[in-house]
Amino acid sequence: MRILVLGGDGYLGWPTAMHFSQRGDEVCIVDNFAKRQWELEEGIEPLWNVSTLHRRVKTWEKVSGKKIEVKVGDLCNHRFVYAVFEAFKPDAIVHYGEQPSAPYSMQSRETAVYTQHNNVVGNLNVMFAMQKFVPDAHLIKLGTMGEYGTPNIDIEEGWIEIEHKGRKDRVLYPKKPGSYYHLSKVHDSANLEFACRIWGMRATDLNQGVVYGVETDQTVLHDDLRTSFHYDDIFGTVLNRFLVQAAVGRNLTVYGNGTQTRGFLNIKDTIACVALAADNPAEKGDFRIFNQFTEQFSVLDLANKVQAAAKRAGLDCQVDHLANPRVEQENHYYNAVHTGLVDLGLQPTLLTDDAVDSMLANVCAQRDSVDSDVFVPRVKWKQN
Length: 384
Description:
Blueprint: E1 2-6, H1 13-22, E2 26-31, H2 34-42, H3 53-64, E3 68-72, H4 78-88, E4 92-95, H5 102-105, H6 109-133, E5 138-144, E6 159-164, E7 167-172, H7 180-199, E8 202-208, E9 210-212, H8 238-247, E10 252-255, E11 261-266, H9 267-279, E12 287-292, E13 295-298, H10 299-312, E14 319-322, H11 340-344, H12 353-364
Parallel strand pairs: 1-2, 1-4, 2-3, 4-5, 5-8, 8-12, 9-11, 10-14
Antiparallel strand pairs: 6-7, 11-13
Helix pairs in contact: 1-9, 4-6, 6-7, 8-10, 8-12, 10-12
């Protein structure tokens, strides 16, 4: 299979590209290194050094004997996108190539507009390139569970059947996004549904939960092949932040009362889900949606897990509750269906004590590189 990985220099994109390459697929990566530029602008960096994409690709060829093609350019440049699609002619497109941070999108008017333009226009260019050059190809698009928000009813897998005034219909599940980033993903979903319905496009929207972990079968083969680990207030995730805080003897900072609940999954399961979608493509005209996560945790659940792991490692940390910089429900109902990928064969990797202990040990080995200044949230959803 010919696999085009958009955003292949990123946290998820790089391990995904190696996975497909390892199993014998022809892989081409597209990236413009914007994430690295955003990190420079924000004054943040991953916990450990991340090799350049070109070095990674060279090292991967030495380690595996397999080549990965690289195309450098911006998805918002439709001429570049068209040239890539015309030359490579992918069977499947894995689309990670978007600005991924809710805090970044809420930082200012400029970052909100940039996020919307970058994500929505880039995705539209990909859709039109598919229609023009590979109309039978399958788009695997990384969405987010954050599109749904926290409704007071069960979250179905993308679609819901409703009855209104005696009539029934199947419609896209109502969306209640929590940031301009999440809202950009809602726009993507609407555009993809339209293209599937009107053009007969085939697409799978993976509404992904929060991903944790950094190790896959390929990333552990060489230091140059490692993927990024962010713990900062802009691109970091809550579990990463707690692990790093515990490693350097800082208290764990919980926003609000910590009852906010979300879906989570291991990075290994992200790659497994994408591979399952690629191997079992949507039918033409089908906008297929999977809720991509394996477990649900509250923020306080995660803090307690890390605190327990720290104790097992001989570390001491307490839990601090900060004023929540976000505008979000803290006490809410949350029950999301996530059976589609399991039905395709996903075998979940769960967040066990051993998994938390292993991640904490990895972080402790890098504690001298930690910048504690980036623990404090700088972005507020309501600017004063």
